[in-house]
Design brief:
This protein is mainly β and 229 residues long. The chain contains two helices and 15 strands. The longest helix has 19 residues.
Length: 229
């Protein structure tokens, strides 16, 4: 009996090791720091003392092979030092972003009044709620700086847009994904970090664990709408 139990234990250990080596599935945790006061418009500056300087939020990217789903939600309501109730809205109804690096397709999953819709995202666009920010390819530069995030080598990509100003994406091609936090994506690889005066994002952990294809595939029972007018 003791010998049998030992063999079973060894078999379980071998199985666990085998599963740990499968790096094609898992999740990536992101920490999103919103620089609230730096994001305020000139006509909002009168309220800057009523809001916190920064708000920290979390996002999770689930992946299986080349497919991924970014899970999003707005930060919880907070109370400032002055007692004001503050609700920061960052996604305008966007609750998930689906991407498929193999096909180059991506979709924004929206929810409003209890109803969900899928909006295809064009290449060169970042979905922000129900709208899209156009990223002019002529204003995207691959920089010379590199850094390591979670053990993955990343290269900087500098984007200049009218909506967000200058922004640096830290992108790795070590994983077969074309996805990232806040709905950002790059055809150069996976976005693990974002630096901008309005926000900073960093991948804090990667966990390799089973993720079904259904979890990273746009739901078939949700209607697809176009964001073009």
């Amino acid at each position: 009996m003791k010998k049998m139990m030992f063999l079973l234990a060894m078999a379980s250990l071998s199985t666990a090791v085998g599963m740990a080596q499968d790096k094609s599935q898992g999740k990536i945790d992101y920490e999103v720091t919103l620089n609230v006061r730096a994001s305020m418009k000139p006509d909002q500056q009168q309220y800057k003392d009523l809001v916190p300087e920064k708000v920290v939020n979390k996002e999770v990217l689930y992946f299986n092979g080349s497919k991924a789903r970014l899970s999003r939600k707005d930060p919880d309501e907070i109370t400032s030092d002055e007692g004001a109730k503050v609700k920061i809205v960052t996604n305008d109804g966007q609750i998930a972003v689906y991407t498929d690096a193999a096909t180059g397709q991506s979709w924004s999953l929206q929810e409003a009044n209890g109803k969900k819709t899928l909006i295809p995202m064009e290449k060169g666009y970042k979905a922000v709620g129900k709208a899209s920010i156009s990223v002019d390819s002529a204003k995207i530069e691959t920089g010379k700086r590199t850094k390591e995030i979670l053990g993955f080598p990343c290269r900087e990509m500098v984007i200049k847009s009218k909506e967000m100003g200058e922004m640096t994406l830290w992108v790795t091609d070590a994983l077969p994904l074309r996805a990232g936090p806040m709905g950002f994506s790059s055809d150069k690889g996976l976005v693990l970090g974002v630096d901008n005066k309005k926000l900073n994002v960093i991948a804090t952990a990667i966990t390799y664990s089973p993720v079904s294809l259904g979890e990273v595939t746009p739901p078939a029972d949700v209607p697809v709408m176009s964001d073009k007018k």
